[in-house]
Write a structure and sequence with these properties.
single chain; alpha/beta; Enolase-like, domain 1; TIM Barrel; 2 domains; three-stranded antiparallel beta sheet; 18 strands; binds D-gluconic acid; binds magnesium ion
C-alpha cells in the first residue's frame, strides 16, 4: 500500500505571496495544495509544518475523507481560516494524488462534466467613469461574458477594487495601508457608474459589483433597491456576514441578488445564509473552506435551496486552488459563476499548467490530477515578501470594514 512519505511547505512571492503544500507518496506520486491566506500566510505555513505534516507521514493517501475528518475533528479546535486553509491544502493535494494514481483529471473523479466550461467574471475598474468604461470594453473584447465593475469614489482615497497595475492587487504594502472611507459618497456615486456601464454596453453580458462588506443592512437594502434596473448578476458582500440575520432585512427590501462567502470557511458558517435563502450565490472556495471535499459538501447543501456557486478567485488564490475549483465547478449541478482575476506574470514560472481561458470560460487541464506542477527552483528566486491588505478608516478616523 502506498503511504504518505513526506510533505513540504513552500512560501514564495512570485509577484505576490503563495503558500503551497506538496505531498509525496512512497510510490513517488506528488500532489499539490494551495495554503495561501492573504496577509496571514506564515500562520498557515507554521500550522502545516509544525502540526499537520508530522501527522500525515505513513497515512494512506487514498483515504481522503478519513484524513479530512482526522485533521478536522482530531484538532479539537474547529473551523476558522487558518485551520480550514491548512486542511484544504492537504485535501487538495490528496485529490491531486488520487487523480494521478487513477490517470484521470480530478473532475472525472467528481462525476464528470456537467457543462462545457466554467463561466468566469473578471474585474473592470477605473479611477473615474470614462476609465471604467474603457476597461469594461477591454474585457468584453477579450471575450468575457461577465464583468465586475468598480470605480474610485470621487474625492475619497480608499475605494475598494480599483486597479493600479495589470491586475487588481489589494495586498500591496509591507504594512497595512490606511485608507479613508465615506459611505454616503459611495452610495451616491456607485449606482451612477453601474448605470453608465449598462447605457454604454447594454444588457448582453453579466454585470457584477462588490460592496466588500462596507454597508449596514439598511444601507445595503437602499443600494440594492436603487440598482435593480441595472440587472446585476449580484451585489457581493453588501454587509459583514458575522451577523447573518442582517441579511433578512436586505432581502425584505430588494430583489438584487446577493453573493457572500469569500471570507467564510465552513458549511456551518454559511448554513443560515443558505437554509434561510438569504443569499443567491455562495462564494466559498477550495482553499479557504476545507478543500474539494468540504466545498462539495457546502455546494450540495446550497443546491437544496437553489443557491448557486460563485467561488472567490482573486489573485491571492494560487493556480493550484483555482484549478481545483474549476474541476469542481465543472462537475457540480448548481454552478453559477467563477471569479477569475489572473495571476502576476512571475507566477507562471513557479506554477506550471493550470486552467485555461477561452470564450469567456475557464477549462481545466486534462492531465491526470489537478494539472498543475510546482517548480521549487523557480520559486527560490522569489523569496517571501510580507504584504498586507489595507485597513479602512471612516472620515472621523475610526476603523471601518475593509
Ligand atoms: C474579491 C475579493 C478580493 C479580496 C481579497 C482578499 O471579490 O475578489 O473581495 O479582492 O479582497 O481576495 O484577500
Ligand atoms: Mg469580494
Amino acid at each position: 500500500m502506498s503511504k504518505i512519505e513526506h510533505a513540504e511547505v513552500f512560501v514564495a512571492s512570485p509577484g505576490r505571496t503563495f503558500v503551497t503544500l506538496r505531498i509525496t507518496t512512497t510510490d513517488g506520486v506528488t500532489g499539490l495544495g494551495d495554503a495561501t491566506l492573504n496577509g496571514r500566510e506564515l500562520a498557515v505555513a507554521a500550522y502545516l509544518r509544525d502540526h499537520v505534516v508530522p501527522l500525515l507521514i505513513g497515512k494512506d493517501p487514498a483515504r481522503i475523507e478519513d484524513v479530512w475528518q482526522y485533521l478536522y475533528k482530531g484538532a479539537y479546535w474547529r473551523r476558522g481560516p487558518v485551520t480550514m486553509t491548512a486542511v484544504a491544502a492537504v485535501d487538495t493535494a490528496l485529490w491531486d494524488i488520487k487523480g494521478k494514481t487513477a490517470g484521470l483529471p480530478v473532475y472525472q473523479l467528481l462525476g464528470g462534466r456537467s457543462r462545457d466550461g466554467v463561466l468566469v467574471y473578471s474585474h473592470a475598474s477605473g479611477a473615474d467613469v470614462p476609465a471604467l468604461l474603457d476597461d469594461v470594453e477591454r474585457f468584453l473584447e477579450l471575450g468575457y461574458k461577465a464583468v465586475r465593475a468598480q470605480a474610485a469614489v470621487p474625492d475619497v482615497g480608499g475605494t475598494y477594487g480599483v486597479r493600479k497595475g495589470r491586475l487588481y492587487e489589494p495586498a500591496a504594502t509591507a504594512l497595512p495601508d490606511e485608507q479613508p472611507w465615506d459611505t454616503e459618497a459611495y452610495l451616491r456615486f456607485a449606482p451612477t457608474y453601474l448605470e453608465a456601464v449598462r447605457e454604454r454596453f447594454g444588457f448582453g453580458f453579466h454585470l457584477l459589483h462588490d460592496i466588500h462588506h462596507r454597508l449596514t443592512p439598511m444601507e445595503a437594502a437602499r443600494f440594492g433597491k436603487r440598482v435593480e434596473d441595472v440587472g446585476l448578476l449580484w451585489m457581493e458582500d453588501p454587509t459583514p456576514a458575522e451577523n447573518q440575520e442582517a441579511f433578512r432585512l436586505i432581502r425584505q427590501h430588494t430583489t438584487t441578488p446577493v453573493a457572500v462567502g469569500e471570507a467564510l470557511t465552513s458549511v456551518w458558517d454559511v448554513q443560515q445564509l443558505i437554509t434561510e435563502q438569504l443569499i443567491d450565490y455562495v462564494r466559498t472556495t477550495v482553499v479557504h473552506a476545507g478543500g474539494i471535499t468540504h466545498l462539495r459538501r457546502i455546494f450540495d447543501l446550497a443546491a437544496l435551496y437553489q443557491v448557486r456557486t460563485g467561488s472567490h478567485g482573486a489573485t491571492d488564490l494560487s493556480p493550484v486552488s483555482l484549478s481545483a475549483n474549476v474541476h469542481l465547478d465543472l462537475a457540480i449541478p448548481n454552478f453559477g459563476i467563477q471569479e477569475y482575476m489572473g495571476h502576476p506574470e512571475e507566477a507562471a514560472d513557479v506554477f506550471l499548467g493550470g486552467a485555461t481561458f477561452s470564450d469567456g470560460m475557464l477549462h481545466p487541464p486534462e492531465e491526470p490530477g489537478l494539472g498543475v506542477e510546482y517548480d521549487e527552483r523557480a520559486a527560490a528566486r522569489f523569496p517571501y515578501e510580507p504584504r498586507y491588505l489595507p485597513v479602512a478608516r471612516r472620515l472621523d478616523g475610526s476603523v471601518h470594514d475593509w
